[in-house]
Each structure stands twice: as C-alpha cells, then as structure tokens.
Design a protein that fits this description.
heterodimer; A: alpha/beta; Rossmann fold; four-stranded antiparallel beta sheet; 10 strands; globular; B: 2 domains; six-stranded mixed barrel; 60% helix; binds adenosine-5'-triphosphate; binds magnesium ion
Chain lengths: 224, 403
Amino acid sequence: MAEDILRLEDIWKIYEFGQTSLAVLKGISFSVDKGSFVAIMGPSGSGKSTLLHMIGALDTPTKGKVYIAGKDISRYSEDELAGIRGKNIGFVFQQFNLFPNLTAQENVILPMVFQKSPEKERVKRARELLFSLGLEDRIHHRPAELSGGEKQRIAIARALANDPEIIVADEPTGNLDSETGKKIMEVLRTLNKEEGKTLILVTHDPNIAKLAEKTIHIKDGKIQ
Amino acid sequence: MIKEFLKIAAKSLRTRPMRSWLTMIGVVIGVFLIISLMSLSEGIKGAMMSQLRMMGKDLIMVFPGEINDFATTFGGGLELSEDDIKAVKKAEGVESIVPMNYKAETVRHQGKVKTVLINGVSLEDGLDVLENDFGWNLEQGRWPSLGKKEAVVGNAVPSEIFSGMKPGDEINVNGKKFRVSGILKSVGNKQDDSTITVDLDMFKDITGERKGAKMLIAKAEAGYDTERVVENIKGELFETRKRVRGQDSPSFSVLSSEKVTGIVDNILGIIQIAIIGFASIAIIVGGIGIMNTMYTSVHERIKEIGIMKAVGAKNKAITTIFLIESGFFGLFGGLGGIILGLVAAKGAELAIRATGSMYLKASITPQLVIFGLIFSFLVGCIAGYLPSRSAAKMSPVEALRYE
Ligand SMILES: Nc1ncnc2c1ncn2[C@@H]1O[C@H](COP(=O)(O)OP(=O)(O)OP(=O)(O)O)[C@@H](O)[C@H]1O
Ligand SMILES: [Mg+2]
C-alpha cells in the first residue's frame, strides 16, 4: 500500500457574518498517495479553491484535521504553517502571482530567501530551474515583459525552489490559450511522473482530469 | 536574508520615486534644523565660554541694575556712582578695582571720520586684569603712558576701520588729539577688536562724563573666598545707597566670574534645549508622514504580502521588509538633513564672518552627526512599526484574494 502524503478528515470551513454563517466545505475527507496526481473538479463557487487552501496550509479548517506528511497541521500557528508552505508545498496559481518588480530569477529565489538557504545555492538553483523550464533567455526579465506561458513556467520554477513534495495548482492553465496550457500541463506531468512530485490540481478541463489517477468532484462543499 | 530584504525594499522605493522623496522631506527638514542650529549654537557657546574661562576665578563684576534686566543694564541708562565705586573699594577682601566705561564717539584719522566705541579703563589698576584675564595683548607698540593722551586700538581698527593705522599716528577723538601707542592682538571677536581704549581719566576728559562708571571689576584678595567677597561688596553697596540716596531696594548686580560663566552657560543651554525641542517636533511630523506613506504602501502591496506568505514568509520576515523600508526613509531623510545642515552651518559661519560681528566657528561634532542619523533612523522605524505589523497580520488567503 502506498504511503499517504496528505489526508483530510471531515474538513469543514464555515464563514461567519454576524448573525448568518456560510458553510463552504461540509465534511470533506480523502487521502492522496505520495507521488500521485489528483484532480479536483466542480462548478464555480463549489469550494475548490477553499479546499486547496487547506491542502496547501494557506488556511486552516473550522473543523476537521489536515495531515501533511503524517502531521496534523489544522491547529498549527501562523509561523508553523508558513514553515510547511515554504518547505513542503509549492503553489501554482491561475493568475501567476509573480512579483511585478522582481526579475524571473529573483522571483524564483524568493522562497529560498525565506528558508534562509545560502546565497550561492539560491542563485544556482534558480538558474537550474529556469534553464530546465526553457527560460534561459528570460532570467533577467520582469513579469510584464513575458507571455502568459512564460510567466506560468516561472511560477512553476518558483514552486519547485525549495524542492517540496507536493505541488498544489489552482487552475494553472485557466489564463492560458489551449496550446500554451497543454505545454504547462506537460511540465507539471513530467514533474509528477519523473520527479515523483505529488500533484494536486483544480481544473475545469475534463481532458486534464483524465490524466489524473484520481478525480475528486465537489459540489456545494461536498464530495460527490 | 537581510540583503535580499534590502533589495526588495529598495525596489519598492524606486517604483514610487516622487512619493519616496516627498516622504523624506519631513525628516530632512527636522534633521536639517537640528544640525544647523545646534552646530551654530555650539559654536557661539564655545566662543563665549572660552573667552569667559580666561578670566581668573578671583574676579568680581559689578553692574548697575538687576542682572535679569539686561535691557537697562546694557542699554546704557544706569551707571555706578562715585559713591558706589568707593563702597566697592572698601569692601572686605577687595584687593583692587577697575572701573570701566564705554561710549561711542566720532574719531578722525588722516581725514577719515568714523564712529568708534571708546573704552575707558583705569590702566593703573586694570592693566593687569586686561592682560591676564581678558587676554588683551599688544601686537605692536606699547600701552599708553599714564597722564598722556595716548590710546591703544583693537586689531580690527587698522585693518578695517582706519586702514593703514600704525603706532605713532595721530587721531582726533571728539575734538581731542590722541596718539596711537599700540595695536592689540585680536581677542577673538570683532566687536571688541573694533574699539579704542584709553585711560579712564582721558575717557572722562573726552566725554565730559566726570564721574562714575558703566561697570567695574573687582579683584578678590588672595586667601579670600570669592563668593564671600561678593557678599561683602553687596553689603557695602546696600549700605551706601541707603545712606546716600535713601533707596532700600538695591539696584545693582554683583557677580563672580564663575557665576557669570554659569549664567551664560545656562542661557545658552536653554536655547539649545528649545532648538532640540522644536526640531524634534519637525522630525516627529516627518515620522507621521512616513507612517502615512507606509500604510499606503502596505495597502498597495496586499497581493505581494499574500504571495510572500504563500511561498513561506513568516510574519517576522514581512515585518522586517516593511521596517527596512520605513527605516530607509528615516535614515536617508536624516542623511539629507545632515548634509543640508552642515552646508547651512558652514554658510552661516562664513556669512557671519564676512559681516564681521563675530569670529564664529560652526561646531560640527561627530556626536551631533551620529545623533542625527540614529534619531532619524529610529523615527523611521517607529513610524513603520504599526504599518508593518498590520502587513504581517494579514491572512494569506485574504491577501491573495485581494484585487
Ligand atoms: N473569505 C471568505 N468569506 C466569505 N465567503 C468566502 C470567502 N472565501 C470564499 N468564500 C465563498 O466560498 C465559496 C467557494 O469559493 P471558492 O473560491 O472556493 O470557489 P471555487 O470552487 O474555487 O470557484 P471557482 O471555480 O470560481 O474558482 C464562494 O461562494 C465564496 O464566495
Ligand atoms: Mg477557485
């Protein structure tokens, strides 16, 4: 039996607005094998991003437990969560979320800065990652000077900076044309297949979901 | 790590150059005021104190009028009478007294006519005090001989008032002929250097003022405590005035040289505290400007804060990044203020020297510069504290969602 890298137990996320409250996640449980590829699908507003925030240690559930690499992080402090995000998780967002006034290389270096890795190593690693993603000519460009596909590849390089076990991607191809999206998916698939990274990905595209070993369908905060 | 944070802060400052400059101006003005005014006031203090310190500790000054009423004391209205002078002379512990007088008179030299301040000093009693305690030394010639119509002139007289004047020249003071017997070395301030000094008897002859003096200096006898002698003089003066004029509210001031030094030191100290106070207010206003800019900057960069948190930044890292930015404002504002302040102080020094009223030297100490830098840096950090904390406390999800 493969080892769980991630396990969710009865996850609830409830937002309170004074008198009323809104339950966005209503008792979600599932587990993810190490090195597998899991797709999350569902209509808009169903809670996919909210769920991904729990998985990525960006947020904690109102109720329930989140195990990452065997540790329950649902009651972790902010700084402990930051540590998990920095070391165990790599995020890829739909809107790229790059620093506009930093160059490609500086963007990739940023997560390593927060982990206090030595400067020489940081630069070396950032260049290796950018080279491997075919961005050797873009190292000193700023995001505004790059295409969507290039920006997303920089974001992927940044997600890999601290060599995390899990890559969490929220509609990574959502802002790209289908051709570019395909290339980005190839990159992510390669990382999953060849480097053994666990890939958890939200998508609206059934063709992408087909590539995954497991697809979780969410509707109205529940697994279907 | 700090190096990368510095880079991030520097980049964000550079993306809004106009705002960065405007933010710094507040601090620049505050530090500029502190540095320029403090170095000038230190210079003035230094010049005055060094002159005062030359005086022996056994000297006692007697002025008419209360010392806290400078306007009447030095405005020239009041005088010490002949009786007052006698009273001081007979006080216990007084070794000698030097009555002093001064008045502006027209002086003619080789056809040039100018108004010059004439000092009248009893040279018989006072030469010693002038040389040893006031630092009056001859550059050329000799002191006037008693009973002769001779004068010594200050250093600036031949150089600036009557150019080319030399010992042996004849001058005409208020219609009376005098001979220049000597020229003094500079005593360190233009005012004193621009006077002409004659014996008190000659002075009375020139001005027609027969008796009294504007002030007098008494020397305490060796072995007497100066402050005791001050009390003795006060007692004698009090008695005399009561007897002769029927006054019982004495209107004179008797001060030892140490007291005078202390008073001047105090007054200058109070002025300096006031300068620091006002300039600090200016710096604090600058700090509020920094705080305002930092809140704006945090607000503009909510998304960036979210990104940094998502890639593993702890709260302390976020705080540090914003504190560096506000510290920059403080430090560079301070640096700008120091440079401007030094330029202004040097400029004022040269300007004052050019007008010739005083040989002022702006006192720019490393302590003052370091104080200015540290103070402005701290103001920057304190101003940035609350905005940085508000940045660090943001929830990563909300910050990422922010549009
Ligand atoms: N901070 C919040 N406060 C209140 N409600 C929130 C908050 N965050 C999310 N929601 C709500 O939770 C629901 C789920 O949002 P979520 O972003 O997870 O949807 P999604 O499935 O990712 O949708 P999409 O496919 O459009 O990205 C939405 O109705 C949203 O309004
Ligand atoms: Mg979403």
